[in-house]
């Protein structure tokens, strides 16, 4: 039996971004502006956590399915919306805005370059992108977030067939000894 969940897809997105996001930033030539890697990923970002987090930090979540699952000859296929957020701090409003737009573009490029999410998904489509500064008098408008939304399709998400056990047979061991000498 096998079941694919939204969490499986969120974890796959995190793994792809952990491995490929900063190399994408470097390929785009933005490593001087986005000098820190995203090291921490959270499921539910909280403003108090963000204030004390080492920025940039990331969040990945899924609000659920985008449509009804589809029955196919190979099983049931489904598409989930997955949203990636990056939270960053800049030295000014303009600096923060520029950093957010670049992070979003790097996330988008990374996910589109790795649509199978290491063979977890059968398709990935970019469906949205947003940017916002987080209103907080203590942060002087220099902390903000961007989100990139993708629709991730997985095939045969519910396989209820029983798992056929693997039968292994023990190996026979034969020890060959030289014949005993007869004296």
Total domain units: 1
Instruction: State the share of residues found in helices, binned by percent.
Output: 25-40%
Named CATH topology:
Alpha-Beta Plaits
Q: What's the count of strands?
A: 8
Largest sheet: 6 strands, mixed
Tell me the radius of gyration: 24 Å
- Please identify, by name, the CATH architecture: 2-Layer Sandwich
The CATH top-level class label: Alpha Beta
What is the helix tally?
3
SSE arrangement:
Layout: E1 2-3, H1 6-27, E2 41-42, H2 47-52, E3 57-65, E4 70-72, E5 75-89, H3 93-113, E6 123-133, E7 143-154, E8 158-159
Helix pairs in contact: 1-3
Overview of this protein structure:
This protein has 183 residues and is α+β, with helices and mostly antiparallel strands. It has one domain: Phage minor tail protein U (Alpha-Beta Plaits). 27% of the residues lie in helices and 31% in strands. The chain has three helices and eight strands, in the order βαβαβββαβββ. Strands 2, 3, 4, 5, 6 and 7 form a six-stranded mixed sheet that branches. Strand 2, helix 2 and strand 3 form a beta-alpha-beta unit. Helix 1 crosses helix 3. It is extended, with a radius of gyration of 24 Å. The model has no long low-confidence stretch (mean pLDDT 84).
């Amino acid at each position: 039996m096998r079941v694919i969940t939204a969490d499986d897809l969120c974890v796959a997105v995190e793994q792809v971004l952990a491995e490929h996001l900063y190399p994408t930033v470097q390929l785009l030539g933005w490593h001087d502006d986005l000098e820190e890697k995203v090291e921490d990923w959270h499921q539910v970002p909280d403003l108090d956590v963000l204030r004390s987090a080492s920025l940039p930090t990331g969040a990945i979540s899924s609000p659920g399915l985008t449509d009804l699952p589809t029955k196919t000859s190979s099983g049931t296929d489904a598409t989930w919306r997955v949203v990636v957020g990056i939270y960053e701090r800049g030295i000014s409003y303009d600096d923060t805005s520029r950093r957010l737009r670049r992070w979003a573009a790097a996330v988008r490029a990374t996910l589109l370059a790795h649509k199978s999410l290491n063979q977890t998904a059968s398709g990935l489509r970019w469906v949205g992108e947003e940017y916002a500064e987080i209103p907080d008098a203590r942060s002087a408008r220099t902390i903000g977030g961007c989100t990139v939304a993708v629709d991730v399709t997985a095939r045969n998400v519910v396989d209820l067939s029983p798992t056929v056990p693997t039968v292994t047979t023990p190996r026979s061991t034969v020890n060959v000894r030289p014949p005993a000498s007869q004296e």
